Amino acid sequence: MDTRVDGARWSTMSVSAAGSLFDPGTGYAYTLNPVAVAIITAWKADESPDRLRAALLERFEVDTRTLERDLMEFMRRVKWLGLVT
Question: Which of 13, 39, 72, 82 shows its CA 20 to 30 Å from the CA of 20?
Fold first, then answer.
């Protein structure tokens, strides 16, 4: 699954290590778990999808199959929220 996003869109958003995301374009705030913080931080840094996956596999106790499934679900949710296209 492709996890690339528009880095320019994410550059305007602020994310805290504590798990808050604020979108100044909409005024919405979101609460994130540690995995979501890691994903969004990688997006903001414009990291490649392969680098993102490697970082998640290293940081969190997860196997590749579960990671792919969870990334697919995460992408569906952020698309549903209108945070990615």
Answer: 72
Residue with tokens 């705030």: 29
The helix-helix angle for 49-59 and 64-80 (nearest 10°) equals 120
Task: Give the integer Cα–Cα distance in Å for 25 and 47.
Answer: 23
pTM value is: 0.82
* Backbone φ, ψ for residue 49 (5° rounding): -60, -40
**What angle (nearest 5°) sits at the alpha carbon of residue 65, between those of residues 62 and 70?**
70
Distance of alpha carbon 20 from alpha carbon 3, whole angstroms? 20
Cα torsion 5, 6, 8, 12: sign: negative
> If phi over 0 gives left and psi between -120 and 50 gives alpha, with beta otherwise, what is residue 27?
left
The H or E element that residue 22 is part of is: strand 20-23
